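Lecture 7 notes: from sequence to structure.
We start with the chain below.
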Amino acid sequence: MKEANSLFSFLYAALLSEKTKKRAEIFFVSLAIISFLLHLAIIALVDLKIILINDYSKLLSNPISAIYTPFSFILIYEVYLLVYYLPKSTTIYIGKQYEIITLIIIRRIFKDLTKLELNSNWFDSKANVNFTFDIVSTIILFFLIFIFYNLNKKNEINQSKLQKTLDINSFIKLKNIFAIGLIPIFLVLSIYSLAHWIYENFFSITQIVVKIKDINKIFFADFFTILILIEVLLLLFSFFLSDKFNRVIRNSGFIISTILIKLSFGTEGVLNAILIVAAVLFGVIILAIHNKYETLEVKRVSTLES
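Predicted structure tokens for the same chain:
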């Protein structure tokens, strides 16, 4: 038992400590800057015909498309932050999911900027329509995430006022164990996805590259599938702590929100934007209603104490 606790403490310090988070931030930001400059350099060399590439590489034809690369590393860092906050705060953990899907859309916007057809018949082009929906979706999602975090502040205030009658240390430790297990899984997925993406865009010599799934569907579809399984397990374990109706509905609602995000990776265009916005909007509404329940509980407890 003592050895198990020592191993847990070591892994937690190595993977989920504040010091590790700071190191990860410095590493991924540095990697994003270096990759951006490297991508720009390669585009310049291609443009000067110093190096030759096949006709199917879409990310080496315009300097604007180079922004896609650093955003990929920023997204990986966001994945780490999501795992980091899993044992610390359920709502911030869910908020990080919303941040990730919004950043995916922003990255897609940078990629699709090079495909726009600038003419008077704007909506006759599929690329233009998708770009428009992505821009509108980003604005809506940015506002919804702002509301979500504001609601979370109110939720934290309510929780601080409610007396804790149950020992939640074991549940927090369980979440820490899940988080520690998730990091190597997502690390392997990230390395595979990055290698696959590099091969598709820089080394593939056949037109089949066009038909291969994009990096979002390679990594993030699997990523959100794993998150759904983890959230269901945590929901089941949470019944040992509380069977309060509003808490169960909140956690179940967050799972539904994650499932909607997962489903969005199998769609494109308008349906993709609708599913993502609906997922975040659903999570915001669920948290808002949950807060109403908690506020009533705070008033009830305050009345009994007085």
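Points to note: Residues 2-305 form one domain. The chain has one domain: 2-305.
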